[in-house]
From TrEMBL:
A motif (Histidine triad motif) lies at residues 524-528. Residues 430-540 form the HIT domain. Gene3D superfamilies: 1.20.1050.10, Glutaredoxin (3.40.30.10), HIT-like (3.30.428.10). InterPro entries: Glutathione-S-Trfase_C_sf (IPR036282), Glutathione_S-Trfase (IPR040079), Glutathione_S-Trfase_N (IPR004045), Histidine_triad_CS (IPR019808), Histidine_triad_HIT (IPR001310), HIT-like (IPR011146), HIT-like_sf (IPR036265), Thioredoxin-like_sf (IPR036249). The active site is at H526. This is HIT domain-containing protein.
Amino acid sequence: MVSTPLGSKLRLRTRHHEGRETGSPGGVQKQQQQQQQQQQQQQEQQEQEQQEQEQQEQEQQEEQRQQQGTITITRTRTTRRTTTTTRTIITRRTTTTTRTRTRKRKKTKKKKNNNNKKQVLLGAAGLWLASSQLRWWLAPADQGSEAAFVGSNKDGSHPVLRVARTSGGRAASTGRLGRRATAPVLYDMPVSNNGARVRLIAYAKGLDASALVIELPSALGGLKSEEYKALNPQGKMPMMKLPSGQAIYESDTIARYVVDAFSDVGPSFVPGTVEARAMDNLIARLHDVYVAAIQGAMYKAAPPFGTFQSRWEALAKLRKQVRVINGLASEEGPYLTGADIGHSDAALFPTMVFMQHVLPKFMQPGWEFNAEEAFGPKLVRWWKFMTSGSVPAATKVFEEIDGALRKWDASGRWDSILYAGRQDTAERTIFNMIISKEIPSEIVYEDDRCLVFKDINPVAPVHMLVIPKRREGLSQLRHSTQDHEYILGHLLRVAGEQGKAALGDNGFRVVINDGADAGQSVFHLHVHVIGGRELTWPPG
């Protein structure tokens, strides 16, 4: 389906608003006049019936008195005078009542006319507020605000979505005046690639602020606030509050809600064939389970990264899973599953914005980043199409995320992150050559993380060295960080296992020397496992 331009949506919404609030002016006035005429006729008929009934009662009373024969001529004259007076009074009262009712009808009519004028004025005011609200949403975001969405305008603002800020820094609520009461609210931030899959769908469908409201989590006090966690106990974004008040979270769930709720506008995000739909679901699933789950290794200061404690291992897994997705991508394109854009495109594209910006930071010194090697040829071709301007929604998402990442660059976010800003620049040691098998050694044990070999200058019958295969800046124990917790624990576990394997129930000593004055001669962290003889304390 062809998405409706934002301006067309505004015109359609304005006409609908006019029809709902004011109706046709001529038709409304004619209907009111008919109602007033009917009411006036009913009142006059009731008054006439009341007068006739009173006259009949008086005539009946006179006939009864004449039949009794007790009424004298004088009394008859008096009665006639009284009757005449009574009739005169009744007539006057009736006339007065009629005039009073006529005045009331005129006042009521005047009041209704005034109400009609007020309705017209209120309708016009409503239209003005609605159009003002849309203009507010369309206004460029404040570049000085942290909440400003980085968008496709020349000044870096977003042309549709923005969050207002008060002088105190909290999200302002004035923007709600023109919003449709039934619009769902998405709580998200520009840098969020998971939330961006929802935004990409919304942009592609041409949804404006009257259909979907976007707020920062700070509007509810932040991700860890009680108000936010009452809606999403996970304390994560994105989250969407539905018109019913029910909150839903997890980006795939929210994305599918938007596709379903707005299925009548824009692209369907449902590929045209059964096989393409299956591949679309598979790629989206692989992204969520194996890529998004560990993407924190690219930017988080410390582990864990999903199920990984090692940043290096998480990044290696990330690259592997991206290559798996490359193998599933369509040969023909231009989208991941063929001719139609789908959920997989919306899911993977924002994450690719992250990867193409961040992964080159983790290259070893002297190495160059090769996109085709990192992502695969089909994903590189798809990436070029998505960023060519052929998909405006993707262009907006790219500008939002990339702009936020550049702010992270400026703030020095990666300066202290291992393998990115912080590299192991110390000189190679003899241990590096033993690991690479450049120098022979008597290896006792080896796995992906460490190597155990016999010390060439033993101080006891059993003397082994346990060393990490990747030094990761650990020339000395004092340089350890949270990034090293996994390897330090692994080294000690292996040391215990190898000591027990070599000495059984006999004791052994585990030693880590830190610094030259402590006996360290090779500046590549290593653990000594010593045993097979009686050891004294303190060591000499």
